[in-house]
Amino acid sequence: MSQPTFSFTTTAQEVATVFAKEIQGKNVLITGTSVNGIGFETARVLAKHANLIIITGHNSERLKIAEDTIKREIPSANIRPLILDLSSLAAVRKAAAEVNAFPEPLHVLIHNAAATIGPFKLTADNLENQAATNHIGPFLLTKLLSAKLLAARTAHCTPRVVFVSAKGHIFCNGVNLTTLERPDPGSHESMDAYFQTKVANILTGIELSKRSKGQINAYSLHPGIILTNIMHKGDVVAGLKKLEIMDEDGRPSDKKYPWKTIPQGAATTVAAAFDPSLNDKPGAYLDDCVEANDTISPHASDSGNAERLWSLTERLIGESFTF
């Protein structure tokens, strides 16, 4: 079969149709699946082919709306809602215990959820909220579900972990390990904190692939610039105006960077989760549905940075993550 041609305008549905055979029979967990987001669109297109889609969110009402919306369109979809608050380590452990009690193995874990970009806020675990939700919580969840992922491994299937990162990782100087360990309200800048977590996503994908030695393949990606729920909250608009991604009136501006629709934005996630040509590229970073390692900033691809971040994150969760 010739390699499919994907581009900036490719939609998630188009990618799912190409890889329908790979998606068939698979069990997938996706974090952050509120309607009008790329996590929801990812769940919707995969639900047509997959055996089981576990959708997550910290708001039970929004989770129910997402489940009902998918089931109305795809009555045969096997959707299982899971309450998950990634900002709380206790809540992550509770949700992981629920998933581990499910009878099915887990073929793909997609880290899509992200915290609202906003002022400095500490979690119950004394972690900065964005760092906890976007990096530390997902790291712990991956660790706790690793046995479930390994149980899906066969001669023809290597389980995958997908991190939705962002091209914006280039706008910071890497992860500040000092403030990750000891959050400092004085030096907190909300957009910078967000970009640091996106660096952390890429580094974790690289290090997870390395440490698992072929047992689990991890990938990270840039979904594109998309008008989703998160774009209307917190300090996002001011930050995007500064980067000229939005105009003075807070509307999308394609002066510097073109915008994608939600269906286009979810496409790269589906490719990262199921494209078989990525089997021999563990740790790869994707953009527009294809491998784009050459576009990663040096601070987000440095193996030393990846190792240091991994070790510190183990310390922060109080558990070591080994295979």
Automatic annotation (TrEMBL):
This is Short-chain dehydrogenase/reductase family protein. GO terms for molecular function: oxidoreductase activity. InterPro entries: NAD(P)-bd_dom_sf, SDR_fam. Coiled coil: none annotated. Keywords: Oxidoreductase. PANTHER family: RETINOL DEHYDROGENASE, RETINOL DEHYDROGENASE 11. It comes from the Eukaryota. Belongs to the short-chain dehydrogenases/reductases (SDR) family. It comes from Mycena venus.
